[in-house]
Amino acid sequence: MTTDRIPPATGPDGPEPALPGPAAAAPPPAARAAVAPALAAHDLTVRFRAPGGRTARAVDGVNIDLRPGEILALAGESGCGKTTVARTLLGLERPTSGTVTFEGTPLGYGTKALKAYRREAQLVLQDPTGALNPRHTVYDAVAEGLRIHGIHDNERDRVADALSRAGLRPAEKFFLAYPHELSGGQRQRVVIAGALVLEPRVIIADEPVASLDASVRGEILALLMRLRDDLGLSAVVVTHDLGLAWNIADRIAVMYLGRIVEIGSVDEILTDPRHPYTRALVSVLPDSPVGRPQVLTGEPPDATAVPGGCRFHPRCPALASGEAEAAGVADACRRTELPVLPLGRDATSCHLVAAHDAAVPADA
User: Fold this and answer.
1) Is residue 39 helix, strand or coil?
2) Domain boundary among 200, 218, 239
3) What is the CATH number of the domain that holds 155?
4) What would the pLDDT profile of 227-258 be if each residue is shown by its tens digit?
5) Taking the CB of residue 183, how many other CB atoms lie within 10 A of it?
6) In total, how many domains does the chain have?
7) CB 215: neighbour CB atoms within 10 A?
8) 10, 19, 58, 153: which could join 84 in a potential S-S bond, CB 3.0 to 4.6 Å?
């Protein structure tokens, strides 16, 4: 697999200059791991009532941490629970059990506490057209957050600065424009500016380039990386595209049916994936280290009927091929539930991986 990352950002008017204003540069990866998480979920569970009196286990025990100045990709197929995790991290969903902490403090769910938190953690949606009111100008769209939070001083300068940081320059050129007058990439930059205007410390981006043309995806991804590097922002990027994660993330958490099944650095996960589900996802990338593409059979089970044992076992290529049987873990795959991955360290949740690790001498 090639390790080339996306090129430097280019905005609507050519290469983008350095971000204006003071910058709090992101710490290097080793320093990020040594400090307290910017945002974390502890034993997070979110359940919903489903028709027929059933219960959907949308998030079923998740431990995840976002380190200061880090971009964490939350990846998996549609319906795996990653968007519910993102919404819960933002306080838009209340967990059934477990806690969300921001800089070590548990998130409060009172109106005042949530309003204060949302100055620090902002959401970027995947559909900029749906996120913007067609009757509001760009200025009003970006200024909305300031007005909600009662920030009235220097509004014009704050809006102009946010638009400039998002790559829309000169900012004043866009003040009176309406969303329908902008390109898809420009609309997404307005959405990002609306998040930046409150000077948050965390951004959660839900499929931030899914609705954009391929020609502008790289620009938006490069913009998010520059915001991380120049402003010290931390970001969770929800995606089904591991190629996107390869380009932008420092770490990847792979989700399947409400659980994280593998988490680690982007280089480790995408060059040496261990979980059979992750291997299948990585196998379809160009120059994949896994070899030929692996096609998973069937669809992910319904969250109201999570299989026993390993929840991936009905679709697992290692079980279907006899590899799990040869390793002596086939029965465990079908019957023994795996523990929730712990917080704060790289790990893989798989009976086969555990068997392989047990077979390797400690000094190997």
Assistant:
1) strand
2) 200
3) 3.40.50.300
4) 999 999 999 999 988 888 888 999 999 999 99
5) 14
6) 2
7) 10
8) 58
